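Dock geranylgeranyl diphosphate; give full complex structure.
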Amino acid sequence: MAEAVISSFDFTAYLANARGRVEAALDASLGPERPNQLREAMRYSLLAGGKRLRPILCLAACELTGEDSEKAMSTAVAIEMIHTMSLIHDDLPAMDNDDLRRGRPTNHMVYGDALAILSGDALLTRAFEMVAIRSPNVPAERLLKVVGELSLVAGAPGLVGGQVEDLECEGKEVDLETLEFIHIHKTGALLKASVVCGALIGGADDQLLKALSTYANGIGLAFQIIDDILDVTASSEVLGKTAGKDLLADKTTYPKLLGLDESRKRAKELIGKSKDILGPWSKKASPLIALADFIISRDR
Ligand code: GRG
């Protein structure tokens, strides 16, 4: 059923339009920060491209509630800010120590470690400003729920917890349960929050929120399984980040534990289940269904 819906939906046009709107909103979200180096470092990473998957998921989830997705734009921007700051910090020498991100030298390679840390901090705090005081025409109780959701997902119960476990596990034997903990917290949590926060801004009822949470759990884990696969199969040029990094850092990944074919199969199953759960919402769910397909078919 989900497949039939997609065929009449122009995903390429949808994606181009959503990306254009997100890029414009990201650009407008940064003001004349002082001093200059801080402004430059924040803009350098936030406006460096990237797929913009998280903000687009947020807008699409809001749309599904029937609400104008423009109302979710500040939240979408906030989520991309949290994602970008996590990339800046992840690339630091004390963490993954990488020199290539989104096809450019990493933030600390250009601005130094101190400014990379501080521009990340500034993006993280700006994210909460975007939701709390730069979200016009959204009821305060919805914004409060989004602030709560984002504070959980960014902190110890989400990205930070996943990252610490990931760093702890480098070079060790890791079982599937631990690997899933890392993937779900480090990557899946923010993808899930993107969907859930878009739905909260749109005032989704409990039934829709539950379905979207289930959808988002599936795409979140599938996204990281595909990321593990691409780390082995794609080039640094296409990825815009260093390929083969997991092997180099002696990290456990899905392909390492299950092999490439089984990993692909697991990701496909998760995406299939995520798409099925949105069946009752039919045509209105076309963007989210197509985004699920995009996650599994992406080449970077
Ligand atoms: C959020 C307070 C706070 C701290 C961050 C460093 C850290 C703690 C967490 C690391 C999180 C991390 C880097 C997870 C990897 C997620 C991932 C697969 C990123 C790549 O996402 P894409 O492919 O990238 O969507 P683009 O560049 O397209 O946006």
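Observed: Residues 50-51, 53, 82, 86-87, 89-90, 95, 102, 124, 154, 159-160, 163, 186-187, 224, 227 surround geranylgeranyl diphosphate (CB under 6 Å).
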